[in-house]
Each structure stands twice: as structure tokens, then as C-alpha cells.
Specification:
The complex is a heterodimer of chains A (341) and B (293). By secondary structure, chain A is of the alpha/beta class. Chain A is built from 12 helices and 9 strands. Classes of the chains: A alpha/beta (341), B alpha/beta (293).
Chain lengths: 341, 293
């Protein structure tokens, strides 16, 4: 049976203090695994309580940051120090100094844990090749295309390993993998690199549902223009950040979602949208009514089987309480709409 | 040939200052204490550049982005959604411009701000000091505005003039991170009483800059250099990469500089250094100080 308005989270969630305060000190030790597993378990419980259909990987408790986690596990990258992303937030931006190769699997340990706990409604976020390239300094490869394709080869190997692990527990069942590609539309003349590197990453991997997550793009239309060329089934995107907080389902009330009309015009391959309905950069808890208005506005543009609901991005910048309230209201809103569908 | 070296824009913070700001964000460090930490770090930065005879702007350790403090002290501009800064993984709050009525806060004295570390806007110190301001053209392009550009430009330059006068600043760097279109015109005549160094990005067209400025510092191409020479008292070139950890070679830079046809020249960097790890920015700063020696 087709499921409508599946609810999912995007990736990260606030880490409990017992983990965040010691994360770097214990990284890779038995204690790291013990505390990451405990935090994952608690976050999954919270997601379930909030009503999420898909629990992701339980808030990415094994990972500190989406770029750094993977870059740390690749040979050929050197770190000189953190670089600011916004306000007082930083990420460790690496410099590529020689040919890239895998040092150790990025996410097998996390997946092994989830499988050991019999979780199957999961979606594994993996930072995509274009973003890995764009967020690295390149002192080695000829150009940006070659760099992105080098990352794509590594990711292809990594995702094949994840799929093998998954098949050992759930043979014949689809594995959901979300390629996080926030950098996707930042260089308008490089959309072909995005397409080629993503397709290279998923090459030869069967029975997976691949999606991409993009956020804070200045123009999603660039992505919509090429989406039919990318071997993905859906796009999980940020919209609430660019929307009004006023209720209503008119175009004027919902400026953040209007571009989806353009998406749907081009959507000949029936890709689904993971609809960002709650802003992860403000503490304001969007009321159920506002979230319903956002979803209903989009349901006038696209059929419900092509709409999933999620926060704009990972909720790690909000407190656990605020993150939970946002997810809870999201779930209530979609359940109220489902009653009428 | 005389070589003037220029460092501008947000400079990466030390780990210590990052931690102080983190504590301040969580309410564990009062505004005044943070202000004092920021001031100490700015003084160290100035000391290093003064010793090397490098022109500099305030390193803007208390600016979360290159527009925000100006927005916060200007009546009629609100902070909008989080937006990507050009093609980077850095973000700024997009200004929402309705009207520009004047300055609502004293930019010179210590004063707490919402959503940004406290004022003052700058620490004005040293003979090589320049105030930093976003160029009106990029400011406008990075905002959502109900005003047309001509009105915006006139109004924001009035604000800039007031800020510079309040600080007693004679020199200012205006930065244009967004490339010019062929029909863009930047008119800085309202700021003619100040010595303006305009740092641009990308290709310049002959009609882009109205009048003559102290210096136009552009990405080096023969065409850009001709425009820079024509519209500047001292032409300028950007030769150090603020987006790459790879170190330039000072001899190669000197060779490029001395091959240019000018009696005096400003040499600077592409993009401000906040996109680099601090250790690399420090090395590039040291390299800049050796250019033309």
C-alpha cells in the first residue's frame, strides 16, 4: 500500500552532554562506542515518541560533523584548523594533499549497531561527493571535476560495503541512503559535476533508495533542471527557512514553497520531495496550523505519495526539547492531514 | 616602484577567542568581558601589521558577517533568513531593507547587540588603520530591498559617512564580494572626503566605477588593471588566494608586481582570510609583509 506523507528526520540531532563534552577525547575508543550507542538509543526513543516513521540513524550520535567525520577516515587529507561556517560555528576543513583512499569505513560501525538492535526503518546520511570536494581545499588534483570524481569513487565503495552489511540482515529489502549535498547549487556552472559525481557514487548499487538533501540554496531551480539526470528517487530540501511564519495557503502566505510548482512541471520521473516544514535555525516552535498550511499548500501542487515531511535540516543546533517539540508538531500536523486524505 | 600592502575584512579568530565567544553565546561571559577579549586580540593583530608597515582594516572579530553590524545599527534594515555567502559553506543573515532612516546606536562606544557580539564597530588604532565597510553595490545585491538601488546607495553612503566621521577615520576599505555586471555603476562621490580603497571581485567593466578613488584593488587581468589605473590614484591587484591553503611564492609575486606599469601599487588578497584556518592566514599575512622587500 502506498504510504502518504512519510515523516522523517534529516540527520543530526543535539547530542546529550555526556557525549558532546567528551566526544573528541574518547573518539574511537570503547567509551566512544558505549556513549554513542546510548545516545543513539535515547534519540531513537525520542523520535519514536515524536511519531517519526523513519528514524534515520538516530541523530548521528557517532558523528561530530558531516564533513569532518568522513574526511577523518580518508587518507590524503590534511587538517590545518577549523574554518567558520556561520556566527561562531566552525568545521574542520581539510586540504587534499595526495591521492585519496579509504582509511576506514565511514559508517559501518553505526550501521552495525543499528542492525544489532533490529532497526529497519532507517535512512543513512552520507555526505556526497560534490560537497566533500567543495568543502575541501585542493592542493593536489588537477581540477574540481577530478576531485569530485575521486570522492565519488570512495563513496561508491563505502556505500557498497553498507549495502552488503544491510543485506546480511535484511536480504532483498531496500536500504535508504541520503546523500547530503548542501553545496550542490553553490556554483551554477558546475551542475554537470554534481550530476556526474552523484551518479558515479551510486553506480552498480542495486535495491537502494537514494535521495539527496540540499539546504540553504539560493536557487533550487538549478537542481530541478538536472534532477531527472541524477539516479535518485527523492530530494529532501529546506523550505521553512525561506517561508513566512504567517498562516495561510495562498501563494503570498507561502513564498518558501512556491518554487515547487516549477519542480512539479519538470518532475517527469516522479521523484518525491522531502518537504522541510520546520526551521532548524530558530527556537520558535511552528504551530501545527502553520505546518498544516505548508503541507496543504504543497498538496495542491503535488500528489501526496510524492510528499514526505521533515525538518529543513538536522536539528543539532536546537536544544533536545525544542527539537522534540518541532518534530512532535510536524507529526501532529501530518496526521491531521492524513485523516482528510 | 613603491608597494603598499593591504589586509582587509574578517580575519580568522584564535581558538581562545572562539571559546570566549562560545561562552558569551551561552550567557556565561558578559558583554563587557567579551568586548575586552576582542579588543586585546585586535591590538595584537594591529601590532603585527604596524611592525610590518601593512595597511589594514579592523579584523572584525566582533562581526558575525560583513553586513550584520551595519544592519543592526541602522534604522530600517532587519535581519532576514540565513543565506549562503557566495559559493562558500559560510552563511550570513540576509538584510531586509525597507528604508534607511539613520543610525540608531552609537557605533563608537561599547554597546551590546542582539545576534552579534557587542560594539564598538571598530578599534581605531594605528597609522595604517582603515575602517571596513561593505560596498553599497554588494550590500544591495546580498539583500532584499523595497528601495531602488540609487536611493539605497545615497542613503547608505550617508550612514557610512556618519560612521567614519564618528570614528575620526580618514581611510576606509569598501569591499565588493559580488562581481559587477556590465551595467552596474558604483558612485562613491558622497564619500569623496575619505581616502577610499575599493576591493572588487571578478571582471570590471569600464563604466562600473564613477569618478576616481584612492585605489581600486581588483583581481589581476590586463583589462582590470587598465580600469584600476584609470580610476585610481594608486592602482591595485589581488595576488594572494584567500580560498586556498597552498602557499604562494613571494618571489613569483614580486615578479608579477614589478612587471606592472605603475609607480606605486597596492597588493592585496582575493577574499578576506576568514575562509582559511588561522594558522594558514597567519602564514599568508607573513608572506604579504615580505612582498616588495
Amino acid at each position: 500500500m502506498t504510504q502518504y506523507l512519510i515523516s522523517q528526520e534529516i540527520g543530526s540531532f543535539r547530542k546529550p552532554k555526556y557525549l558532546s563534552t567528551v566526544f573528541h577525547k574518547i573518539y574511537g575508543t570503547d567509551e566512544y562506542y558505549k556513549l554513542s550507542e546510548k545516545a543513539t538509543e535515547e534519540t531513537i526513543e525520542l523520535f519514536r515518541h515524536a511519531g517519526l516513521d523513519n528514524i534515520g540513524v538516530g541523530g548521528e550520535m557517532f558523528r561530530w560533523e558531516m564533513y569532518e567525520h568522513q574526511a577523518n577516515r580518508i587518507n590524503g587529507i590534511e587538517f590545518y584548523g577549523p574554518v567558520r561556517s556561520f556566527d561562531n560555528r566552525y568545521y574542520k576543513k581539510g586540504s587534499i594533499v595526495e591521492d585519496l583512499s579509504i582509511k576506514e569505513s565511514f559508517h559501518s560501525d553505526e550501521l552495525e549497531y543499528l542492525l544489532s538492535r533490529d532497526y529497519s526503518n532507517i535512512k543513512i546520511p552520507v555526505t556526497g561527493p560534490y560537497t566533500m570536494m567543495d568543502w575541501s581545499f585542493n592542493e593536489h588534483y588537477k581540477d574540481r571535476y577530478e576531485t569530485a570524481m575521486a570522492f565519488a569513487s570512495l563513496l561508491n565503495g563505502e556505500m557498497k560495503s553498507l549495502k552488503e552489511l544491510w543485506d546480511s540482515k535484511y536480504p532483498g529489502r531496500k536500504l535508504e541512503i541520503q546523500l547530503d549535498e548542501p553545496a550542490t547549487t553553490t556554483h551554477p556552472d558546475e551542475m554537470q559535476i554534481v550530476v556526474d559525481s552523484l551518479n558515479k557514487s551510486v553506480e552498480g548499487i542495486q535495491n537502494c533508495e537514494f535521495t539527496i538533501h540540499v539546504c540553504y540554496s539560493t536557487d533550487y531551480r538549478m537542481l530541478y533542471d538536472v534532477m531527472n539526470d541524477i539516479k535518485i528517487e527523492g530530494l529532501n530540501l529546506e523550505f521553512a527557512n525561506r517561508d513566512s511564519l504567517e498562516p495561510g495557503t495562498s501563494d503570498a502566505s507561502r513564498p518558501g514553497y512556491e518554487e515547487l510548482k516549477y519542480f512539479q512541471q519538470l518532475n517527469t520521473r516522479k521523484k518525491f520531495i522531502g518537504l522541510g516544514v520546520t526551521d532548524v535555525h530558530i527556537d520558535y516552535i511552528e504551530p501545527v496550523k502553520l505546518i498544516k498550511d505548508r503541507i496543504n499548500y504543497v498538496l495542491d501542487i503535488m500528489p501526496p505519495d510524492l510528499v514526505r515531511v521533515n525538518p529543513d535540516c538536522g536539528l543539532r543546533t536546537r536544544s533536545v526539547e525544542t527539537g522534540y517539540e518541532k518534530l512532535k508538531n510536524m507529526d501532529t500536523a501530518r496526521k491531521e492531514i492524513l485523516k482528510d486524505l | 616602484m613603491e608597494v603598499e600592502k593591504l589586509v582587509y575584512g574578517i580575519y580568522p579568530k584564535t581558538n581562545e577567542l572562539r571559546l570566549h565567544i562560545g561562552r558569551w553565546e551561552k550567557g556565561r561571559l558578559p558583554d563587557a568581558a567579551l568586548n575586552s577579549e576582542i579588543e586585546s586580540e585586535k591590538k595584537l593583530f594591529y601590532q603585527m601589521l604596524n611592525e610590518n608597515g601593512v595597511e589594514y582594516t579592523d579584523p572584525l572579530f566582533n562581526w558575525y558577517d560583513i553586513l550584520r553590524p551595519i544592519c543592526l545599527i541602522t534604522d530600517g534594515i532587519d535581519l532576514g533568513p540565513l543565506s549562503r555567502f557566495k559559493e562558500t559553506n559560510s552563511f550570513y543573515r540576509m538584510p531586509l531593507i525597507n528604508s534607511i532612516e539613520g543610525i540608531t546606536m552609537d557605533p563608537v562606544d561599547f554597546s551590546p547587540l542582539n545576534e552579534n557580539p557587542p560594539l564598538p564597530l571598530y578599534l581605531h588604532d594605528g597609522k595604517y588603520f582603515n575602517a571596513f565597510l561593505p560596498s553599497p553595490l554588494s550590500f544591495y545585491k546580498m539583500s532584499k530591498s523595497t528601495m531602488n538601488y540609487v536611493h539605497f546607495e545615497a542613503a547608505i553612503e550617508k550612514i557610512y559617512s556618519e560612521i567614519l566621521k564618528q570614528f575620526g577615520a580618514r581611510k576606509a576599505v569598501l569591499y565588493d564580494p559580488i562581481p559587477y555586471g556590465e551595467n552596474d555603476v558604483l558612485d562613491l562621490s558622497a564619500l569623496s572626503e575619505f581616502q577610499i580603497r575599493l576591493v572588487t571581485t571578478g571582471k570590471l567593466y569600464s563604466g562600473n566605477i564613477k569618478g576616481k578613488l584612492h585605489s581600486i584593488v581588483a583581481d589581476y587581468t590586463p583589462e582590470n588593471f587598465i580600469i584600476s589605473k584609470k580610476n585610481s590614484v594608486v592602482p591595485g591587484v589581488k595576488l594572494i588566494d584567500g580560498y586556498s591553503t597552498k602557499m604562494e611564492n613571494v618571489d613569483a609575486i614580486d615578479k608579477s608586481v614589478y612587471s606592472l606599469d605603475a609607480d606605486k601599487i597596492v597588493v592585496s588578497h582575493r577574499e578576506y582570510f576568514d575562509f582559511l584556518p588561522r594558522i594558514i592566514a597567519d602564514r599568508k599575512l607573513e608572506l604579504i609583509s615580505r612582498i616588495g622587500e
